Amino acid sequence: MALADVRPEGLDADRSPEWFRTATRWTQVTFTDDDPGTFDIDFWIDVMRRTRSNALCLSAGGYMAFYPTQLPFHHRSAHLAGGDPFGELVDAARGLGMHVMARVDPHAIHQDAAEAHPEWLARDEEGNPIEHDSMPGVFWTDPFSTYLSEHITQIAQEITERYDVDALFANRWESVKGVSYSEPVARRFRAETGHELPRPSDLTDPAWAAYTRWRSTKFSELVGLWDDAVRAVKPHVRFIPNRNPRITRDLVRELIEDRYPMLVIDKQGRWEDEAAWTPGRIGKRARGLFPDRPVALLASVGTEHHALRWKDSVTSPAELTSFIVDGFVHGGRPWFSKFKAEIFDPRWVEPVTEAFELHHRCEPLLERLTHVAEVAILDVRAPDGPTPWTPSDRDPRAHEDGLYQALVEARIPFEYISDEILTLERLAGVRVLVLPASCDLAPAHVEVLEQFVARGGSVVACYDSGARATPGGTREFALGDLLGVRLERDAYGPVKNNYIALEGDHPLNRGYDGARRIVGGTTLLDVRAEPGTDVPFRFIPAYPDLPMEEVYPRSYDGPPAVVTREHPSGGRTVYVAFNLGEVYWRALQADHGRLIANAVTWARGDDSPQVEVRGAGLVDLATLAGDGELAACLVNLNDPMAMRGQRHELIPLTDQEVRVRLPEGAVSVRARLVVADRSVPVDVVEGIARVSVEELELLEVVHLTWS
């Protein structure tokens, strides 16, 4: 096959320092030992053409070399013989005009390297080498040894020198989970921190905190070392180690700020009870931390689970396309990964092709326009646990999950803003900032929030958001003056049989059809509402849940459950004195979802939202805007499996209506359905443009333009 005959029209990957900006659809092939000499290169050329991929990530070396390496102890594939499968596919991809990234895996070595370089090995508490748990005769490497800092660096430079690549990609580069108790690492840690390596038997050892900081610094320095090494060979080449959904928040931002020109988020599928919107959140979270940096979301064609391993499986077509599509409408460029170049089950090809084709249709808008929303969630880094691998006792994720679910259900477009870059300038365009359970805010963050409301912005704060420790060991509300509350009693619970009573006529307690009370929380805070506030909900003091004869309220005069305040600037604040997001995530009570939506809607103000989508079903909404144009991306997530595991079918929705608030003076308004590829009528009534979407299978993008 002549490569000149298969190059997609107009595709020609450059080799400039900005190459990563045009790498928008990725194919990844992860070789296995028996692939050389047997894999069908024409099949992969065809797949890359059909999926319109413009970038390839391909296994090169590290644990196993798939090219004729000249470095000692760089283990060659047993089936390599005199071939060069890596080089062949690199040349094929370059012939298609694609970018190329070489994958290396430093996490393990073979017996000969282990015997020659015992200092490369990770070791247990007794000093014994840690044998690989699934591959006998193979050993885990120490991530802080010279195997990574020197040997992998040499491998990366050899690949960069010999092959036409744009980047190196490291998988499992943080290596063994846990502490490696090798003597070289122990000496370094002792010299640099003054501590001995901490032991799992004592999680109270202050050395754990020192180790967490030290580990983060060393990994950050390693990223810089590798990046400098390949750029010294070819200036445009970058070293980009993969990241998990925490992005780079476990690294030292100052050390890696300019080391990740693009982010590759390795979250290859949904696990267990993760919601269908999981890939979209990954895109939002990454943009909330690095708003101007490309993000690729790595999706496996197989079934993903944190404990069950079927690495060469094929997932449901509906799940695979949904995962890719929901990711890319929120900024996660599509990247599919296939373990093993040999094909046992080709059922993944069509779903990937379909999803990538959808991205190709939408790419001009997704790359040209900017994601916008009037609502944002403050993304606060979860507190460190006693070790780098154990969660903190106070994990805010469920609080965030519940708010996220409610906002998706309410079809309220929203973004993320990381606390690491929270500034008044970053909040430009945001009308409501939502705090799920954001305690221990820095004084600078509190000041930004106060200035935001003074400028006319609004804040919805839940649970212990704004609480901070005092020198006396108790907590107070740093946001108390802003929210109009004073803390009387800190969080307590779990509380059973808690209810909140509707007080007066307030927009927050509308829509409950005459109910006098609704379900409350399981963890509460007692607060006092200050003058100038309203209390639309008040706690009914908890009472027994058994025996049945004792299940009745003893009194109705509990403290405020929800406190609202209107500020002279026009900004509004809402404070919810219980674990609203967490309890919604756990119980999914519709009344809690309505309360979240009501709070955000009221805080946003009385005028119409910028974008509104009306209709039935679960729809994830992303909005992008530019000068004289706006795109509303509708992803159909309506499915009985939306809250757990694989999606088995696409169930089309009908009769969706997109409403867009136009800027004053907008004329000549036109609308187009990007996926359906046709113009559609648009009605403009009192400055609101209305467009009907008669059927929504998986994705539709309503593109409005005006002059």
TrEMBL record:
<dbReference type="InterPro" id="IPR052177">
    <property type="entry name" value="Divisome_Glycosyl_Hydrolase"/>
</dbReference>
<dbReference type="InterPro" id="IPR029062">
    <property type="entry name" value="Class_I_gatase-like"/>
</dbReference>
<dbReference type="InterPro" id="IPR028212">
    <property type="entry name" value="GHL6"/>
</dbReference>
<dbReference type="InterPro" id="IPR017853">
    <property type="entry name" value="GH"/>
</dbReference>
<dbReference type="Pfam" id="PF14871">
    <property type="entry name" value="GHL6"/>
</dbReference>
<protein>
    <submittedName>
        <fullName>Family 10 glycosylhydrolase</fullName>
    </submittedName>
</protein>
